[in-house]
Amino acid sequence: MTAVGWTCAGIELDPEAAARARQVTPDVFIGDPIDAPFPPASFDLVTAFHVLEHLPDPLGVLRRMLAWLAPGGAAIVEVPNVHGVGGRLFGRYWSGLDMPRHLVHFTPATMAALTERAGGRVEAAAHRTKPRYLLRSLQHLLADHDGRGARLARGLVAHRAVGGVLKLALELTMPLARPLGYGEAVRYVIRPADVRDA
User: Would the pLDDT of 124 be above 90?
Assistant: First the structure.
């Protein structure tokens, strides 16, 4: 975004990742987003892609994100969807659970409730699915089963040609999950609740 003229800032827990980010912008806070010193109304856009599920206080962080928005600003948040096709098909083998790194799991309903409690409203939600999410889940499932059939299935999934066919089949069928609200991840556009577009 800096390449097209935006002024950017960031938050990073890992000092090494923060050092890399500072090659783009010097304004990178190292630490928990709750403690970030950015003043209210200082950003037109705040993004968090696959961040909230890793945090012990996603409600507090979402409140901070909304407070950082300037008038007319928006937050874009993407999180895994435990209610999506992978969670429904694979249950405890769903790759999106990602224990213990994911501390919280969301559905569209719980994300809307969290957003409301934080003082915001979901303006739009886009369901997203990638073949690798479902293939990882399948690998988790197969890895937990012994026996000749499971070994054969694992070998087929790992085989380049078979994996390619599975990926193609998923690419063709996954778009059906999006309008049903079963995407593996959901990207939300969030605005403060007291602000409505004209």
Answer: yes
Question: Residue 198 — very low, low, confident or very high, per pLDDT cuts 50/70/90?
Answer: very low
Phi-psi region of 68 (alpha: psi -120 to 50; beta: other; left: phi over 0): alpha
In this structure, is residue 5 part of a structural domain? no
Q: What's the pTM value of the predicted model, to 2 decimals?
A: 0.84
In a domain, 65, yes or no: yes
Nearest residue to 186 (alpha-carbon basis) of 90, 92, 86:
86
Query: 3 in a domain, yes or no?
Result: no
CATH number at residue 112: 3.40.50.150
Domain that holds residue 113: 32-192
Assess contact for 14 and 32: CB atoms under 8 A.
Answer: no
pLDDT in tens, 14-26: 999 999 999 999 9
